Automatic annotation (TrEMBL):
<keyword id="KW-0479">Metal-binding</keyword>
<comment type="similarity">
    <text>Belongs to the Fur family.</text>
</comment>
<dbReference type="InterPro" id="IPR036388">
    <property type="entry name" value="WH-like_DNA-bd_sf"/>
</dbReference>
<dbReference type="InterPro" id="IPR002481">
    <property type="entry name" value="FUR"/>
</dbReference>
<dbReference type="InterPro" id="IPR036390">
    <property type="entry name" value="WH_DNA-bd_sf"/>
</dbReference>
<keyword id="KW-0408">Iron</keyword>
<keyword id="KW-0804">Transcription</keyword>
<feature type="binding site">
    <location>
        <position position="96"/>
    </location>
    <ligand>
        <name>Zn(2+)</name>
    </ligand>
</feature>
<keyword id="KW-0805">Transcription regulation</keyword>
<feature type="binding site">
    <location>
        <position position="125"/>
    </location>
    <ligand>
        <name>Fe cation</name>
    </ligand>
</feature>
<dbReference type="GO" id="GO:0008270">
    <property type="term" value="F:zinc ion binding"/>
</dbReference>
<feature type="binding site">
    <location>
        <position position="108"/>
    </location>
    <ligand>
        <name>Fe cation</name>
    </ligand>
</feature>
<protein>
    <submittedName>
        <fullName>Transcriptional repressor</fullName>
    </submittedName>
</protein>
<dbReference type="GO" id="GO:0045892">
    <property type="term" value="P:negative regulation of DNA-templated transcription"/>
</dbReference>
<dbReference type="GO" id="GO:0000976">
    <property type="term" value="F:transcription cis-regulatory region binding"/>
</dbReference>
<feature type="binding site">
    <location>
        <position position="133"/>
    </location>
    <ligand>
        <name>Zn(2+)</name>
    </ligand>
</feature>
<keyword id="KW-0862">Zinc</keyword>
Length: 142
């Protein structure tokens, strides 16, 4: 999703593209899985007029509009990323907290198989794997 797409979605729903919304969307374009606090920390020096509550309100609006996805990786923070065209999945290291994204055609196949067998119509799917990343597994971390 680009800033232009984002602006079109906002306008179609009766919202304006404010400077704060543009700044937050740019941060989400640059990095994935950011918390509201991380976004705030990244922008506060250059944009001291923006408060943490503005970041939270903006993220809530963007989530409500379907522009961002809100994730819970079990680290105590909601994490946000711009919606992508294609579902992707995550693996989270229980030792260091690293989150790895991956696409796997078998998951796509599984979703189609469930649809065929049950009639359930899938709008979106996501898989979260928990374990240890290669570095932590090699070191023997638990």
């Amino acid at each position: 999703m680009t800033l232009g797409d984002f602006e079109r979605i906002l306008k179609s729903r009766g919202y304006r593209m404010t400077n704060q919304r543009r700044i937050i969307a740019r941060e989400l374009e640059e990095a994935r899985h950011l918390s509201a606090e991380e976004i705030y920390d990244r922008v506060k020096e250059e944009h001291p007029e923006m408060g943490l509550s503005t970041v939270y309100r903006t993220l809530d609006l963007l989530h409500e509009l379907g522009v961002v996805r809100k994730e819970d990786f079990g680290d105590g923070y909601a994490r946000y990323e711009l919606m992508t065209e294609k579902p992707h999945h995550h693996a989270r290291c229980r030792s260091c907290g690293t989150v790895i994204e991956f696409n796997e055609e078998l998951v796509e196949y599984l979703a189609l198989q469930v649809e065929r067998e049950t009639g359930f119509v899938t709008d979106w799917h996501e898989l979260m794997l928990y374990g240890r990343c290669a570095r932590c597994a090699e070191r023997g971390d638990l």
